[in-house]
Amino acid sequence: AQKITQTQPGMFVQEKEAVTLDCTYDTSDPSYGLFWYKQPSSGEMIFLIYQGSYDQQNATEGRYSLNFQKARKSANLVISASQLGDSAMYFCAMRVDSNYQLIWGAGTKLIIKP
Amino acid sequence: EPEVTQTPSHQVTQMGQEVILRCVPISNHLYFYWYRQILGQKVEFLVSFYNNEISEKSEIFDDQFSVERPDGSNFTLKIRSTKLEDSAMYFCASSENRGGYNEQFFGPGTRLTVL
After folding, report:
1. What is the mean pLDDT of chain A?
2. Using a CB-CB distance cutoff of 8 angstroms, which residues of chain B are in contact with residue A35?
3. What 3-state class would DSSP assign to A62?
4. CA B12, CA B115: separation in Å to the nearest integer?
5. At B104, is the secondary structure helix, strand, or coil?
6. Shortest Cα distance from B114 to chain A (angstroms)?
7. Is the minimum CB–CB distance between A106 and chain B shorter than 8 Å?
8. CA-CA distance, B85 to B60, in Å (whole number)?
9. Which residues of chain A have a CB within 8 Å of the CB of B59?
10. Which one of A31, A33, A104 has the shortest CB-CB distance to B43?
């Protein structure tokens, strides 16, 4: 069975600091994708970054990067130079290629302090 | 930029009533999904839809739920007889394809409140 684990229910970070949000996953499927979404207090789900299981390099997207360690089954999100607008819930999700659905972690509530 | 839209943004209903949540996926997308998120909890998959039929569904998606693509643009989720525990945010999503990197684009959600 597939599973996503986010062990940090909440984090406080000082503005301009880098922050790492943890995500570990479990699947026996060799082909899968890992996604990070941001959910601000307004409720919408915003796609941030994607990492494929066969990608050789870690994904980057502006201030977001994904620290993908396949052997450890981890896909941590790194936000560099955090901003007040980064305060939100962050969800890690996985989709295996044999299925259609996204499987979600419980989320991490990130609060950026001025 | 194309986006997924959902209506209504908030629906309040009485227990036992039927509700229909509406979604307009991105026009060239072929795969459609419904997810729900009970307040403060994780997002849960309900159903995926492709080629006018359900391609995958979760245990949550029981006989009370149904989906339909009544025309070329809308994708609907019907709950036949709502229960208190159906209160949640319901997200519609669509993707161009299924395998590999295929981002699921999410709509803004419909907040369903069952009284």
Report:
1. 94
2. 103-104
3. coil
4. 7
5. coil
6. 19
7. yes
8. 11
9. none
10. A104
